[in-house]
Amino acid sequence: MHLRHLKYFIIDFLALFFIGGQPVEFGQEAVFFHGFLIENPVIRVGLGTNLTEIRIQSSSGMNIYEVASGYRVISEDAEDAQIKGTRGKLTEKFTLLAAQTKERREADVLAEKIKAGLGLRAAIEEEKKRDLGGIFQVKAGDFFTRGDALVYLEKLKGLGFKDVWILREIVTEEESKPFWILTDAELRPLNQDAVLYFVPSHPQSILSYNGRNYRGIFILRGTTRGVALINVLNLEDYLKGVVPGEMSPIVFGELEALKAQAIAARTYAIKNMGQYRDLGFDLNDTPQSQLYSGMDAEHPLSTRAVEETCGEVARYKGALINALYTSTCGGMTEDVENVFAGAPVPYLKGVRCQYEKQPEWTIKGSDHIYPVIAGGRDISAQIATLVSFGVLPPGKDSLYYRQDASWIEASEGIRAVLPLVGKKCDARTPDDAPLNFIALADLLVKAFDWEERIQHLLLPSEIEFLTKEFPHVKDPDRGRLAYLIQAGLIARDLGPRGPERPVRRSELAASLFKVLSVREGLFHRGVFRGAESSLVEVTEDGEARTLRLAPEVFLLRNLGGEDLLASRLTLLGGEKAEWIEKDGEVKLLNILYPPNTNTLDRSSRLFRWEVRKSRQELEEDINQYFPIGHLVDVSVRRRGSSQRVVELQITGTESQVIARGLKVRWALGLRDTLFVIDREYDDENRPAHFTFSGRGWGHGVGLCQVGSFGMAQAGAGYREILGKYYRGVTIQRLP
Fold first, then answer.
1. For labeling, which of 95, 387, 414, 488 is most exposed (least CB within 10 Å)?
2. Number of Cβ atoms within 10 Å of the Cβ of 694
3. DSSP sequence for 477-519
4. Which CATH number fits domain 92-170: 3.90.226.10, 3.30.360.10, 3.50.50.60, 3.30.70.1070?
5. pTM for the complete prediction?
6. pLDDT tens-place string over residues 362-374
7. Helix (H, G, I), strand (E, B), or coil: what is residue 405?
8. Quick one: which of 360, 351, 355, 327 has its CA closest to 604?
């Protein structure tokens, strides 16, 4: 066989190979397409159907082939391709008239200049005129829109072409096709049954679709749902773009949890391979299959999880499991038959999202905790922070903070704060006079150099509005007080004596804390992992650290965004933490507590939620799925093993229906089906509002992603995690 024909035969064979698909197997075999290697197993991922505007680019060149009806090379080493699929036919295109000349030789020179300078296609057309005897027009490129042409018009002017015009050209009925591809600035028509392959022309070249990078190659083809773009790549490379999309390694930075997710995603992909066979691909890139975001989503930690579990899948009695997973189960997963239609599945039964080997630690802190009130609020946690930074003296009780502060105390406190917020310390002449709010404003504004802010960022009308209770105060003190009131550093209501009254130490402390709190990076942040005696184990920026607690360490617990002092903390591990280090010791440890529970998914922001809807809002949601007319009421008919609502009776003026499984969630527009209902009634004793108080996010079946993260934080390995949520499964590597 002639070498050239042999090449075409190989290309056609490989095209059929990709389109038809092959059984998944792990081994040393590899698939080549025109020299580009894709290792087995290969997966085809649909990046979209019914597409009309597609832009494909390459980092360092791609070859474009049409392989459906025969074989032809459309472009070699192209950097950019635009494909337009239209429901009607293309009726117009745009070109650039770069120059006109009577000499063909001159036209050839100008065309070569355009090709060399901009890489555009340059065509020469003879415009015959009776009176001129023929003019040669030099036209550059083809463009879908006038805007695209306008970009190159400016570039042509940069090459010295002065009189450039944008020409609109009619595409005749004979020329027009349903699909067009624009590459190398040349517009080419495509047939309805066209199948295009976009193959990197170099191993290092990466393809991108609409600005997002992908491994492997692209196939563009017509389907029963319009034009589809398909990413063909190695399964393990596919998982590198799935795992971080389904379970962010930035938020859930536990390797063992990510390994469990990798195995679940791999098992799901192989089990459901060919799900969209009629459209030419295996899975799509949405959560309907698995969220796949290409190379841009990849992260070193999730990539490591994929690589260290390469080829591992979950099986039940030898068969691949249907590895369903959910974001947050709310404390317990559900039996699959109660959510998805079908028979019970032994490995997809509801389990409690708790860890039997859950460790527990107790940390004791300072017993010298006194409530200190300023502005009607307990600021003892703020004072503990200032003491830990060395701004305030240690060992003072609440009586001390109820007393008046001196000018020297304020000056010393400010001098201690200045370096913490990156400011220089300027010496001030000591003054032992009583400290009032006018003096405090003067100290703060001058120390932190806020005069320019007052001058340019504070309106005269604002100064008048904020200080109208202090008419006797003159400028510049009036402006300084207004600025501090607006910034929240002092209270607007200062009592009968106004700004002349003495500043209490508690009020000085509140002002200094406010100045300090706007500075980022003062606290260390990480995750609590464990404790022993005076040592605590944390993870900070992904690195494990051992910290020594100061003998009189301040302990804080953050509940609902409020910091509260505590004499002891009980911890399960995995809690977010902030701390202050000074002189090699932790002076203050603040634990950001999740809801008070021992469930593994407690760290999820959607562990608990509440949604309130009017009857009209709920009626609109329900009628998208069930035509019930006006809503009368909704009521729970049956709950599953996790207490999820698996049957919901919906009563309307036109019909009464029973929603089951996932349809309950869809009809109500809620995050999960683990909820209770509270009603508010109108004057006619009809439900006017419904409040759904619930837990969890997702369908609630299979692996709980946040729960697996909690297990990993508590020390569980990926096999133990998978064994908890998929009962009775074994983890095996594919041959």
1. 488
2. 21
3. HHHHHHHHHHTTSS-S---TTGGGSBPBHHHHHHHHHHHHHT-
4. 3.30.70.1070
5. 0.77
6. 999 876 667 888 8
7. coil
8. 327
